[in-house]
Amino acid sequence: MNVFVIGGTGLISTGIVARLADDGDTVTVFTRGNHDEELPDGITHVEGDRHDTDVLEAAVADADPDAIVDMVCFSPETARETVDAVAPHIDQYVFCSTVDVYHRPPERNPITEDAARHPNVSDYGRNKADAEDVFMDAHEDGRFETTVIRPWSTYGEGGGVLHTFGDDTYYLDRLRAGKPVVVHGDGTSIWGPCHRDDVARAFVNAVGNEDAFGEAYHVTSEEFITWNQYHRRVASAIGAPEPELVHVPTEVLTAVAPERTAMLRDHFQYATTFDNRKAKRDLDFEYTIDFETGVARTVEWLDERDRIDDWEEEPFEDALIEEWRAATSDVVAEMGTYR
To answer: What stretches of the chain show up as alpha helix (H) in DSSP?
Structure first.
């Protein structure tokens, strides 16, 4: 196959490009040139701005691909201009969407691909859902075949490890130092990280796959773990001591640190799982990299590049823990007279 990847140097896309190269496919990667990741031998790299549709169309026409894999479309406007630019030159469009398209909290678990998408959990989710519709409309109009893939929480070499306040790497140093870790709520909501290599395999298996034409798929974890388990398993994976977990209500965290808790507000607080049966059937999706193994590989990659920040350079979490413990002690003391 001849495949044109828009945005081939991100977390998932590096896995896709590597697997396509291993399979012997002809691959062109189209990026803005802002990343220094090395591409596999034999890959053609074209630099350009996808929003310059003349440049994009010329690059696609020159590559003459069978399919496009688009990893970096984030709005319906971008989707529409891309459809017009590339439709005459391709047979299939594989669009990287997200499980953020779904409403939260869900009506039922596990979520299937036909679950309600509106109202979306965030502007990001709404824009991705609207972009899906643009590409599916192009499919219905016969302009090309469309496949939509919706990953959940993807991690791996090239990225960080999520925690309550995002993916800053000081979290890993805190664990190694035996420092307490803030957990939202009581730590029993569900999360499901999936390593990028497993996600990438599904994208590659969608290319040229007639069963995937006009379809949307979940490509998500097969391990569903509570956040309490999550932090303990990360610590175990990197050889850190079992962490002390400090539970703070979600509404407190989002109030005191709104910019740090966008993912908590939109995702972490909800217990959600996703049904992968359709991707297993059509895309041969398999969950092969267990969480501890994937975390160990990710952190090894970070260590080799000296990309783990010192916990002492981020005082926020210690300050929050101190204030929360003091406030909790005050409440207990004040209410003692009512026992």
So the answer is: 11-22, 53-63, 76-86, 123-140, 170-176, 196-206, 227-237, 250-256, 262-263, 277-283, 291-304, 316-335
Task: Round to whole Å and give the CA distance between 39 and 17.
Answer: 8
261 CB-near residues (< 8 Å, 6+ apart) = 164, 165, 253, 254
Q: Is residue 289 part of a domain?
A: yes
- DSSP category for residue 134: H
8 within domain boundaries: no
Residue 303 sits in a domain whose CATH number is 3.40.50.720
Token representation of residue 292? 């501890």
Residue 272 · residue 194 · CB < 8 Å? no
Does 109 fall in a domain? yes
- Quick: pLDDT tens for 239-275: 999 999 999 999 999 999 999 999 999 999 999 999 9
Residues in the chain: 339
Cβ atoms within 10 Å, residue 209: 18
The number of distinct structural domains making up the chain is 1
Asked if 128 and 72 touch (Cβ cutoff 8 Å), the reply is no
Residue 25 makes CB contacts below 8 A (sequence gap 6+) with: 1, 2, 3, 207
Q: Which residue segment(s) compose the domain that 254 sits in?
A: 91-322
Bridge pairing between strands 145-151 and 92-96: parallel
Q: In what order do the strands lie in the sheet with 2-6?
A: 44-47, 26-31, 2-6, 67-70, 92-96, 145-151, 215-219
Q: Give φ, ψ of 72 to 5 degrees.
A: -135, 40
Q: Which residue matches tokens 């998500």?
A: 220
d(CA 76, CA 134): 6
Separation of alpha carbons 65 and 26, rounded Å: 8
Distance CA 48, CA 8 (A): 12
> Which residues have a Cβ under 8 Å from the Cβ of 291 and sit 6 or more positions away?
193, 221, 223, 225, 233, 237
Unique residue bearing structure tokens 């990028």:
196
**pTM value?**
0.95
Q: What is the pLDDT of residues 189-206, one digit of tens each?
A: 999 999 999 999 999 999
